[in-house]
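Course exercise 7: structure representation. Students receive a sequence record and must write out the corresponding structure in token form. The form below is the worked example handed out in class, using Cysteine--tRNA ligase, chloroplastic/mitochondrial isoform X2 (480 residues). Read each field label carefully; the graders check that inputs and outputs are placed in the correct fields and that the protein name is recorded exactly as given.

STUDENT ID: A-19
EXERCISE PROTEIN: Cysteine--tRNA ligase, chloroplastic/mitochondrial isoform X2
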Amino acid sequence: MATLLKFYKPLLPSLISPLPVRFHNCKTLIAAARNRPRIRCLSTMGNSKGKVNIKESNGDAVDGDGTETQLQKQQLWLHNTMSKQRELFIPKVPGKVGMYVCGVTAYDLSHIGHARVYVSFDVLYRYLNYLGYEVNYVRNFTDVDDKIIARANELREDPIKLSKRFCEEFHLDMAYLHCLPPSVEPRVSDHMANIIDMIQQILDNGCAYTINGDVYFSVDKFPEYGKLSGRRLEDNRAGERVAVDTRKKNPADFALWKVIDLYHPLALRLFLIGTHYRSPINYTVAQIESASDRLFYIYQALYDSQIVLSQRDEASRKDSIPAGTASCINKFQDEFLVSMSDDLHTPVALAAMSDPLKLINDLLHTRKGKKQGLRIESLAALEKTIRSGLEILGLVPTSYEEALHELREKSLKRAKLTEDQVRQKITERDTARQNKEYERSDAIRKELAAVGIALMDSPEGTTWRPAIPLALQEEQVVAP
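STUDENT ANSWER:
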């Protein structure tokens, strides 16, 4: 899997500027996604606007039509696989980027390996858009291939129909993971004439040969072969790549619909971008539980903010916020932009949300926070700032309320409980507490906590929320 970037020129609008979104047949895609068991939600980017305090940088920038624009403060640095160096992203054509990503060979369902690849490139696509580039994102489909023909023969199905079906499944999975569609999505089957002409040119140039009707590229004729991967030709010995299952890139890979039947799609996305795209990622149940728990925390804080904000007329809000809130927001924006512009360090960008989220919860739930001056204005600014970061990372749901409901439903499924059964346990615990049967009360709490259901006591009564199961919490504590 690879991506090619044509280096064009970045621009920097405000952090909360909208991203251009091009969903092909968006309504149809969303409806189809919602109608199959593993598809639950999809959202487009928001159109919120705002300003950000960012220091000025030197240099000139122009937009796509050559007009001069305000200079971007945050320069984008990316790892160059060819040079093995972190390099400044310098565009060839001001304001434009050409981005090519190898697509799937459509002969089976997607697995978590595909999810990681395309979520990583989606983050890059979103960030380039955010920086102001006009991005032409091309992602192909290999829908004619020996593997496809072999699978079609196994299933006694027409190869083109089989590949079309898996292309459609891939689209649903990408929508499920909030991956924006590419600008162009060519298919091999639509370009056979061009491919044949290109192969003929390679043969004519003496860089390929035929055996029994098959055409083979001669790597000896291409001295640069292996330079991108860093492997020498003599290191590639034939006959050593024997896959356990030809449908899998790795024997440990598993179908994507199996990491999303039990977990919210955005929890999976959060898990994937919680590791830098060039670092190894180790899937464990504990890690996906942690991502799900974090996502619930983020959405709950933002949903609670929206509830409070809806109770106050926006027109009555003042134009200023306390110095402490402004400092928190500026610190987040600086850390977020620096980390994203440093080879897309998404884990650092996610970590930067901790302080503004904590401040939101303080303003919502602590006695001191509720009494703070310009509290409503602070909540509005903080919620907007966090949401803008989530937009860039592709983590904004259709609605916080809906996402919270879905996260709760998934947690009940993992716990093998229903909402009524949890409420019955809460009633039993309330009765035990009233009868001063505290051991029984504690036992019920621990019983639910063991399967990932946390009880929350308040003056208004007891509610519940998803949590990391106790055994997995203990596993995380003892992990090196």
